[in-house]
Every structure is written in structure tokens, then in C-alpha cells.
Design brief:
Layout lengths: L2 E2 L6 E2 L13 E2 L2 E2 L6 E4 L3 E4 L8 E2 L2 E2 L13 E2 L6 E2 L1
Length: 86
């Protein structure tokens, strides 16, 4: 089942958003987020994207998809639906 990719600025279930990306891949000018990229959590402060579930990698790290989790347990929510991961 495919799920939309996460990009910088996307939100998550604890409030806050993905802050940065180390990827060189973008969707509509916004960089794709990968495992280890930072996010701000309104409950836990600065955190990182945990283990991503996609089979797509960028720079040796899996890209994050809708429904993946931050290290604090928050669930990522994709804002775009043009590009999916599998």
C-alpha cells in the first residue's frame, strides 16, 4: 500500500512540524524528510524522525512516509499527495 512522502514543514500528532532535511530530493521545491531529520514536538521538544517504513532511500537513509513516527512516538502527517512511497 502506498503512502504520501513527508516533506519539510509537515505536521505530526503532537503538534509541531518537520524542521529540516538532509535529502537532495524535493517535491514542489520542499525537501523530502528522512530518518534522523529533526522535528519540533510541542510535547517533547526537539526530536528526530525514527525508523521510516519506505523502501525509498536518499543518501543511504529511508525517506519518511505518512504514518511513520518520530522518536518521541508522534505520528507524521503528510501535507502532499502527489508523490507516494511503497
Amino acid at each position: 500500500m502506498s503512502k504520501p512522502l513527508i516533506i519539510v514543514g509537515d505536521s505530526h500528532s503532537h503538534g509541531g512540524n518537520v524542521l529540516n532535511s538532509s535529502a537532495d530530493m524535493d517535491i514542489g521545491g520542499k525537501l523530502v524528510a528522512c530518518e534522523g531529520d529533526e522535528a519540533l514536538c510541542h510535547v517533547h521538544g526537539l526530536t528526530k524522525i525514527g525508523a521510516a517504513t519506505s523502501n525509498i532511500t536518499c543518501g543511504g537513509r529511508r525517506v519518511a512516509c505518512d504514518g511513520d513516527r518520530l522518536a518521541c512516538g508522534a505520528v507524521l502527517k503528510a501535507s502532499q499527495d502527489a508523490v507516494d512511497c511503497f
